[in-house]
Amino acid sequence: MLGYRRFRSRTPTITAMTVPLSAAAALPSEIVQSPLPRLKITEIFTSLQGEADTAGWPTVFVRLTGCQLRCTYCDTAYAFHGGTWWDIDAIVAEVLAQGVHHVCVTGGEPLAQKRCLVLLEKLCDAGLDVSLETSGALDVSAVDPRVSRVVDLKTPGSGEMARNRLENLPLLTRRDQIKFVLCSREDYEWARGMVAEHRLNERSMVLFSPSKDQVSPRQLADWIVEDRLPVRFQMQLHKLLWNDEPGR
Length: 248
Ligand code: SF4
What we know:
Helix content: 10-25%
Strand order of the largest sheet: 3-1-2-4-5-6-7-8-9
CATH superfamily: Aldolase class I
Number of domains: 1
CATH class: Alpha Beta
Number of strands: 9
Distance between the termini: 16 Å
Largest sheet: 9 strands, mixed
Number of helices: 7
Bound molecules: iron/sulfur cluster
Radius of gyration: 17 Å
């Protein structure tokens, strides 16, 4: 997910392979389904949550492999293919072993693998604070209600606006968040219109984030203040902390 590039540890902590990597890599990975209780994973690592309502908390990230979208600003294209099969119980064990309370299931598009729903349920059962980052292109209705869903609305500048599943919007609650990544003033005006038309702020927290090198953070902040928009400005913390240093 955008700006969904996180602070990747230099050594991803994938330690519980259940099939050889070479065998997994030979399988189609764009949208992977398995008859077994397992998921294809790109990486599991601990860092600071850089976005959304839990920004700043130490968080375990579970990045699932595969995404059907190709957003213009995507910086996690490395999650489109490859990955390693993990048993779902092994994923939960690895997350618990990281020793932090927050876990974020992300991608790629995590819901592209149907058994992601099982993983989310098991992480909640384990007593963790669980969030899900999703493109907004797939149905979120079956996600465990204990999960905080961070759902994108893709703008015209993303190149993937036609994939927005607007049927998701009435399903969202105060527990969830709706996120826009803005590539231009035109995107901003489109997003502002969507907030008003669907009264999104009355349903969930609305997040506006600038797309790197396309809209300056200050410019976006000024627009929001000028319009008195009921949305929350956000920047990715890793750009402030590590200035895009590779591996963070
Ligand atoms: S939805 Fe897919 S293509 Fe778009 S930013 Fe997220 S991972 Fe990248």
